[in-house]
Amino acid sequence: MSPRRTGLGELERAVMEALWDAPTDTSGAAGWMTVREVHGVLSAKREIAYTTVMTVLDRLTRKDLVRREREGRAYRYRPADDRGAMTAEAMRGALDQVASSDRTAALVAFVGEASDADRAALREALARLE
Amino acid sequence: MTTLLLALLAVALAGPVPWLLARTPALRFTPRAAMVLWQSVALAAVLAALGAGLALATTGLLAGKGNGDGKEWAGWYVVAGLALLLTLVVLGRLLLSAHLVGSRLRALRRRHRDLVDLLDEHPSDEWAGGRRSLRVVPGEVPMAYCLPGVGRARVVLSDAAYRGLGERERGAVLAHERAHLRARHDLVLEAFTTLRRAFPAVVSSQGALAEVGLLVEVLADRAARANYDTACVLRALEGMLDAPVPHATLGAGGELSARIEVLLDERDRRPQAVLLYAVSAAVLLLPTVLVVLPWLTSLRG
Asked: Does A10 touch chain B (CB under 8 A)?
């Protein structure tokens, strides 16, 4: 089941966007937001239940994409990392895989290391075929 | 006798045989048969090692039982016990390694799946039908990989790869990655990673993993070539190399050269494939028929 089909993935993205766009705190990191605040941002654009936002935030916390902290009787949330760092992580994992001889099969990259001899062989093969 | 034969077989299949296989590049021209051979050699090595331990244990037990002399009696039981212990250690190491490798891989993949689902910029209306597993994530470096998993497999392209490749070349890259997912190449790699983790001192386990890793690429290249054509796959490879590759090595040609060589190969390799399949079957069957069956019969008698 693709998350895109269920719509949950789309909701998770919307919640993450809201958290990423939260006003930064003094240290420059994205500030904490309560469920009510996230719900406020989202309901400006769509009809969404408060409990749904809570569920989605809970899912994101379990996925380690969001950090949660107790504030009084409620929880408040913020992104585990900014968007750039998460993008870098998604790509870095793949690059590490490519660069190391320790192929752990977590990801299978399309093409790994290429030496100069490899590149020359590729050019030569293409020249021969075209 | 049985013990000795099985032990010799185990040593041969764990050391010199994989060493030799890894140094026979011609095997790559029949990648499917070569893959079967690698798997049957690995399986036969494990079975022979376990079989040798069990054979020694039973020999010890039988000798202990059949002998009235007290000293001999105790000695044989010690041998049997040690053999059994060794067998259990080998088995335990394998199972532990499988568990560690498996859980680490699954955690890594889950994390990546969460990340690429979140970061996906792929317009969902494009390429409708069967394309739901594709994710396009921001990235300046052309990059393509797949995340295996039943029902939650993903093919991931970086934005640079998605935009930088022509439509047919992109199709070839996707066909390559989907071939990995369809054929569950990850399971083969996982098995060989497990072996290497369990027995890193067996130098051949590293070579085996590297060679099997190359074979799955060759197989996926072939799947792409079947849907497109050789030149298209080569252009796709070229497109993916466009950006500087980190840690690029200088010197002799590596994995990529080998893949190109196989892609260009047009010769009929069926005789070699048939031979390799026959050897694969023999590696598993002959020890069973010639060593294990007589041994079991002798036990009963």
From this structure: no
